[in-house]
Fold this sequence. Notes:
With 152 residues, the chain is α+β, with helices and mostly antiparallel strands. The protein contains six helices and six strands, in the order ααβααββββαβα. This is Transcriptional repressor.
Amino acid sequence: xxxxxxxxxxxxxxxxxxxxxxxxxxxxxxxxxxxxxxxxxxxxxxxxxxxxxxxxxxxxxxxxxxxxxxxxxxxxxxxxxxxxxxxxxxxxxxxxxxxxxxxxxxxxxxxxxxxxxxxxxxxxxxxxxxxxxxxxxxxxxxxxxxxxxxxx
Length: 152
C-alpha cells in the first residue's frame, strides 16, 4: 500500500531541498510520523513509530534527524517539565504557532495560540526586560475537568 504524503510533509521536504539539505528516508519518515499523529510525541515514540514504518532506519539516525530538523526550523520542540521533549511539524510560514498547557493532575496537553499570551509577554517585557518564548516550554496548571474533580 502506497501512502500519500500530506501537504505539510511535502512542504517540509521541499524546504529542506531549497536549503540544500538532504532528504533521507529517515528524515522523511520522522516528518511523516510527527505529522500523522494527533498526539504530542517524544523522541522515543517517534523512533518506535519510524522503526515500524521504515525498519532499516537506525535509531541514532532518527535522533540525529530530530535534532537537525529542529535546528533547521522544520520541526519545533517543547520541553515538558518532568517529562520528555515533544515535537511538532512547524507550520510553513507561521512564526507564532502555539504554546502547550499541561495539566499536572491528568498530564493531558492542551494547545493554545501564542497570541493568547501576548498581553503577558508584553507585561514581562516591560517590567523585567525579558522576552518569553512560549513555544519552547509547556506551562503547567490544572485543566477544568480535574479542577472540578478536586472541588467535588
